[in-house]
Design brief:
By secondary structure, this protein is an alpha/beta fold. The protein is about 30% helix and about 20% strand. The chain folds into two domains: about 300 residues, Rossmann fold; about 80 residues, no CATH class. It is globular, with a radius of gyration of 24 Å.
Length: about 475
């Protein structure tokens, strides 16, 4: 039996990646604060689709009574995960609402009922005695997806295709975005669930080595992680190698490609995924949700997030039911200075989406809500590119944003792809350093949308051509049919 606990102390620390930015963290307002439970909301607005893949179908209708934890939407696709009621109550209506991505999506509106309702959870399941298929099925049934922001279904990530050899699991606790302190808070309060979830993932994948990655501004958590690794029975008895990897505080260190490079020295190939580098990366919040799904039978119905920014008078880390609206939280719990709110961001200030108002539901992948004053935002007009190459020097993916931007402006999608458009992780570093204030990330997002639209048209045209050829073949007489000869 071997249990190795190791970390890199600050004087020896070399873990990082090339390029990137040293940003002001602005975490002081919520750093070290415990997670506070949101008072029971009177209503939640739960988006039916919060994942990649085919859309879900509603399992409830207006007027139905639902219980907390009850499945209310589900789809049949591989990449789908179900959605559950986050409170007990009555379905008021099902309608289109604006979501965190600024798109209209189908939502189930639930009015709260009996606050004392215990809910409808699944029975507990022992992850170390059940089969791999049962374990992956539990993760899917719990509706668990990546909580770091991407929203990729966890059961898919934990079942790589044959031929992909995985030898390292990385727990992503870097939390490199300014303002956000949610991951730090949950690692402080639920280290036992983090290690439990990590050992469950190691059991499912058969991987014996795991690294908990965090930036050096969280180095105070190392003794806590070390203690939980020692106490965890599965880690002791399973001959597992769980270590803590400390990285320099650098943006975007929390990106899975950057974290893989910093902790393992490997590089995800162009167009590839972490599994192409022998790694699976899971956010620490996702690992905690996995532990709760097995031990408590609890689906993903609550979300820990940071609410901060200059226009928030009561910045804090909170635990809210999925679908909760910031606008409906009591003023004594969440006091927002609406008069001086210049921008509302869902997510961090670098990769988050600006939304038009506070009536946007919290989703499974909402890591924070940032309420910014005019002094915290920048709305300078764009100027001409001065070819300073700062965007190139700061790009953690080692791309050439200036060339990608020129290609998109010229309408040359193919050359933009050649220059690395699809490898861009949209971290915002290039936009941040651009002296001309060119909205580079927005251009790249639009470019990817244009590329997907073109590919969809090409696919539809090809399918139509095949269908037309098939119809033409079907109406042609078989050889010899006109003369009455048999086939």
């Amino acid at each position: 039996m071997t249990l190795r606990i190791k970390w890199l102390r600050i004087p020896e620390m070399v873990n990082t990646f090339k390029r990137g930015l040293k940003l002001p963290t602005r975490k002081h307002a919520t750093e070290g604060k415990a997670v506070e439970l949101v008072p029971s909301p009177g209503q939640v607005v739960i988006p039916v689709n919060q994942h990649f893949g085919a859309p879900n179908a509603c399992l409830v209708k207006a007027g139905d009574r639902v219980r907390r934890g009850q499945k209310i939407a589900e789809g049949a696709g591989l990449m789908t995960v179900p959605v559950h009621a986050s409170i007990s109550g009555v379905v008021k209506k099902i309608e289109m609402r604006t979501q965190a991505n600024n798109a209209e999506g189908l939502c189930v509106v639930i009015d709260a009922g009996d606050a004392g309702d215990a809910g409808e959870f699944m029975p507990a399941l022992d992850p170390f005695s059940c089969s791999k298929e049962e374990a992956l099925g539990r993760i899917r049934e719990a509706g668990i997806l990546g909580m770091g922001g991407a929203g990729f279904p966890s059961h898919v990530k934990l079942s790589p295709p044959p031929g992909k050899v995985i030898d390292v699991i990385i727990a992503d606790g870097a939390e490199c975005e300014p303002y956000l302190t949610t991951d730090e808070a949950v690692m402080t309060e639920k280290p036992h669930l983090l290690i439990r979830g990590l050992t469950i993932v190691m059991k499912i994948t058969g991987v014996k080595r795991a690294v908990i990655g965090m930036e050096d501004n969280k180095k105070n958590l190392i003794p806590l992680m070390e203690r939980e690794i020692r106490l965890n029975g599965e880690a002791r008895n399973g001959n597992l190698d769980i270590t803590v990897g400390l990285c320099r505080t650098r943006y975007p260190q929390g990106g899975e490609k950057m974290l893989i490079t910093a902790l393992t020295g490997r590089e995800v190939p162009s167009g590839g995924l972490p599994m192409d580098a022998g790694c699976i990366v899971q956010n620490v919040g996702t690992l905690i949700a996995i532990a709760e799904a097995f031990d408590l039978g609890k689906p993903l119905i609550d979300r820990d997030l940071t609410v901060s920014g200059g226009a928030c008078r009561t910045p804090k880390n909170i635990r809210a039911p999925i679908g909760a609206l910031l606008s409906r939280m009591p003023v004594e719990f969440m006091d927002v200075d609406l008069e001086h709110t210049a921008k509302i961001l869902f997510g961090g200030p670098m990769m988050g989406n600006a939304v038009p108002h506070l009536d946007i539901p919290i989703q499974k992948n909402t890591s924070g809500i940032i309420l910014m004053t005019a002094a915290e935002t920048l709305a300078d007009p764009e100027g001409p590119c001065i070819r300073c190459a700062r965007c190139i020097r700061s790009c953690s993916c080692r791309l050439s944003p200036v060339i990608m931007n020129d290609s998109l402006n010229a309408g040359d999608l193919d050359y933009a792809v050649t220059a690395g458009l699809l490898d861009c992780i949209e971290c915002g570093s290039c936009t941040y350093v651009c002296p001309a204030r060119i909205k580079l990330v927005q251009r790249f997002r639009v470019g990817k949308q244009r590329l997907r639209a073109r590919q969809a048209l090409e696919k539809a045209a090809a399918a139509q051509q095949v269908s037309g050829a098939g119809s033409q073949t079907a109406v042609q007489p078989a050889p010899g049919a006109a003369s009455g000869r048999g086939a």
